[in-house]
Amino acid sequence: MEVGLIFPSVLEEYQAEIWLSIGETAIMVGSSIIAALLIGLPVGTFLFLCRNGQLLENKFVFSTLNLLVNIIRSFPFLLLVIFMIPFTRFVIGTAIGTLAATLPMVVIAIAHYSRLVEQSLLDVPKGIIDAAVSMGASVKDIIFKFLYVESRSALVLSMTTSTISFISYSTIMGVVGGGGIGDFAIRYGYMQYRSDIMIYVIIIMIIFVQLIQFSGIQFAKKIDNR
Amino acid sequence: MIVLQNVHKNFGSFKAIESANIHVMAGDIYGIVGTSGAGKSTLLRLMNALDKPDEGDIIFDGKSVHTLTNKQLRLMRQSLGVIFQSHYLIQNKTVYNNVSVPLEIAKVPRAKHEQKILESLRFVGLEHLRQQYPAQLSGGQKQRVAIARAIVNDPKVLLCDEPTSSLDPHTTIEILKLLKRVNKELNMTIVIVSHEMSVIKSLCERVAVIDDGKVFDVLDIKPTGIEEMNRGAAGLIEQLKDGGGSHLS
Question: What angle do CA B37, B86, B206 make, to 5 degrees?
Fold first, then answer.
């Protein structure tokens, strides 16, 4: 079998650019995952706990947080990126480049994952929380010893779904010079009429997504003893 | 040990509990019996301060529950074990780790965990299943784990909310025998809520009958004040006197 059938020459030709693009995507998606875990997880947990009938029931906090998450998720992502340009410039110092592109990614990641966290926690039976309160557990105990333990596989699957969405979001970050594999496909494939490049990039992305989905499902299965 | 003084609890316009007066003494096996929807579980939730009364007072171990701060309330709950109809074990923790949770919450020194957990599991006869997950256990075994979890931190009182309702007759007998041992051997006061007259007759020395949110304190299963009760409650008292065989007889 010819090597060209496995690694098409076009990929070798643009190897450096492709690796650079993959790196840029990794930076944007990686930052989004970290933000989702560090901020989205607590925000989603807080959303759940502030709901009607829950431990920290607070109508005002829940309504405000709920509205904010909904507004961010309602934005078509391209418009959110453009809408955020002044804010990005204020925070990062520039609105152009991979680093600047991570800010809108981080914002949508927090909103996206927090909603999925809230929904995952809603699946934990209310009786488990009653049992925890009966044992004299503090809110911190309830979160870490009960809620996260019982919903951990759902939280992993939610992160898997989110990561795939983040990859999708990252493909349009070329509009603010963020680069990434999607931007590479548009600049080298679509704009230069190189359909083959476009197809190969799509194949690369399908492989990435399949790997992430497979790994996420396997890990969630491994930690699920229900 | 637990005293309810003129306790009322409403959910909106619905009167769940009306003027409940109950006195559970140390060492009692105290039964609360009534039909479904009569307010039995609400009464138990009030005793454990999971719900707050709209009127009246609940006194646990000499202290009025409504005067306690959140921290004191958590400490009080740590001296109350609770088992539910659905065991509510943590599915992603092993039997051993489930039983360990109350010790972690009460911040019992780590060095003491293993001994206390194994003692508790030995008491309920499940030491050999300590590495299993709840999904691998039968209904009766899960309820035993729930009992082990409830008693591991040596609570003063064990509150049981319909502990045998979802179990077959044979397993019910096993669980009732176990609860009796908890009372006798561990000197733990037990309050048990059930709609099954036979369960109450098997276990309890003192019984309160609840009907339509009204609670009648019945001492020693005698029909004291029976003429004051409405027909539903009187019917239950009659069953206590005559009908419904005891599981443990």
Answer: 60
Spans of chain A, pLDDT less than 50: 1, 3
Q: Which of A139, A121, A98, A97 is nearest to A40 (CA)?
A: A121
Helix (H) / strand (E) containing A89: helix A85-92
Cβ pair B56, B20 in contact under 8 A: yes
| Residue B109, φ and ψ in degrees, nearest 5 | -50, 135
Pick from A131, A135, A226: which is nearest to B91 by CB? A226
Chain B partners within 8 Å of A131 (Cβ): 82, 84, 88
Q: Which of B91, B98, B153, B157 to mutate to test the interface with A (most CBs of A within 10 A)?
A: B91
Question: Nearest CB to A135: which of B86, B93, B102?
Answer: B102
**Neighbour tally for A222: CB within 10 Å:** 10
**Residue among B111, B109, B152 at smallest CA distance from B130:** B152
Nearest Cβ partner for A145 among B88, B104, B133: B104
| pLDDT for the residue numbered B247 | 59
CB B240 within 8 A of CB B206: no
Q: What is the tens place of the pLDDT at every residue in B30-82?
A: 998 887 777 888 888 888 888 888 888 899 888 888 888 888 889 899 889 99
Measured between beta carbons, which residues in chain A are less than 8 angstroms from residue B90? 128, 145-146, 149-150
Whether B92 and A223 lie within 8 Å, measured CB to CB: yes
Global pTM value: 0.85
Q: What gap in Å lies between CA B8 and CA B30, rounded to an integer?
A: 20
The pLDDT value given to residue B168: 87
